Amino acid sequence: MSTRTYYVALLALLAIAVLGASLDVMEVDAAQYASMARDLLHSDDWTQLHFRGNDYLDKPPLHFWLSALSFKLFGVHNWSYKLPSILFAFLGIYATMRFARLHHPLPVARTAALMFGGSAAWLLMTNDVRCDTILTGSVITAIWLGMAWVEQRRWWQLLGFSLAVAAGMLAKGPMGLMAPALAIGGHIAITRRWAVLRDPRLLIVPVLVALFLVPMCIGLHAQHGSHGLRFYFWEQSFGRITGENRWKDDSSVFFFTHEVLWQLLPWTVFVLLGLYQSGRAVFRGSTWPEHASFSGAFLVFLAISFSRFKLPHYLYVVLPLFAVMAARAWHADGMRIPRQVHIVILVLLWLLAVVITAWSFPQGSIPFISMLSAALLVFVIHRRRVNDSGGLFLASFWMMVAIALTLNGHFYPNILRYQANAQAGRWAEEAGLDQDHFYGMQASGSALDFYAGFHVRWLSHADEARHVIAPGVTIYTNAELHQEMLDAGQVPRETLQLYHYPVQLMGFDLLLPKRRQQVIQSRYLMRY
């Protein structure tokens, strides 16, 4: 892969991210975080977080700080909320390449970076933006700089490592420290390079990290007392393993086993091969370029698997390490059959993209079908080159780019039309309504607040609505309460109908044109 080709590939990823940046933020988490960042923009104290006016104790502040700063610099937009996280996503790509380059040839390093950027998870983490995107970029940067310091012992690497660890901790808590420690510590333990740990310069790391955490700790203590500090340093992360954290579910310990299979599509076959090869090298004591990718990915995977509350995006933090192992396997000898399996997987993904584009949402699909067809043509030209790792990889990458552009340019805009809370909030802002003239009745959500620009007051039933109805007031509600209002004689002068579906929890029913109307709910804007 030439340098020019590599940079063109990065520009393609930039196009994907730019296209996705304009999409509405999704409920539940992203919309809540965007709403909180908008509130923080107008706050006098950025060290304390609030949600709908109440004290907030869950996620650390870095994501909210950066989004609020972006709002301050560029205004409140979808893209300005996502911008900091997108920058960290590209930092993750760069750091993946630099980390891999420490111990592997340049083609392997570039392949690892593009595997991470060309994965299903990277597309999601730059669309449905949460704290994990910043965490992922920070952690792989810390691993790169920490491993670089192990090999080269330069001051700037140690300083950058400290900053990256602090950023990870400010983004998602102790995982920002534990993931790099498990990766680098595992490498040191396996290679028995214990002398590295006796370098007195390491003492500066905890000092710098603690210094970077001071503003957050001051805010936590002022807002929540000692419980806030304990929650952050223990209960939020480790408490999910011990059971002290209030968040619990009944997910299996094997939950992330199937998650890793789809999150790193279409490179899944090589992820599994790379994991096997790296693990075998560790347990057999074979000579191997580095063990940080295996120890970090395996140990973090094991830790989060025993958490009593699991969500798919918890796995993002180690995906760059999986990509490094996958790239190493991709360039290994004797990969003809795995590459053939990879081709089958990629063609199936292409077929799925075509079906969703042409059948599920046919209107306006012709440009995207044309792009997918062109990508398939390029891929077919290279499909027989299973022994040419570079040619097949680039053909696969461009196929994923076409699929990702189709998703961001056609699929997501279509399904986000059914996020009624965002549509209603935007309508309220465009209509110039304020808290005294816009209410939500049993139909609410963070997207409603974010796009309206204020905390929308909630109503419970028609009798409560009677006390606020006046000329210029609009009530946003669901189908049941809309009928209740009409039955109570509270007939609006105008009614606008919206369509709602929880897009973050999308099922196949939404994709099937004949069944879509059965699962879409009606929401109403009742103008008085």
Question: Care to describe what's here?
Answer:
This protein is mainly α. The chain is 65% helix and 6% strand. A five-stranded mixed beta sheet has the order 4-3-5-7-6. It has a two-stranded antiparallel ribbon with strand order 1-2. Helix 1 (3-21) packs parallel to helix 19. The longest helix has 27 residues, at 389-415. The model has no long low-confidence stretch (mean pLDDT 90).
Summary of the model, kept short:
This protein has 528 residues and is mostly helical. It has helices at residues 3-21, 29-41, 62-74, 78-101, 106-117, 120-125, 131-152, 155-172, 175-191, 204-224, 226-235, 239-242, 255-263, 268-284, 292-305, 319-330, 336-360, 366-382, 389-415, 420-430, 446-452, 462-465, 479-487, 508-511, 513-519; strands at residues 50-51, 54-55, 438-441, 457-459, 474-478, 494-500, 521-527.
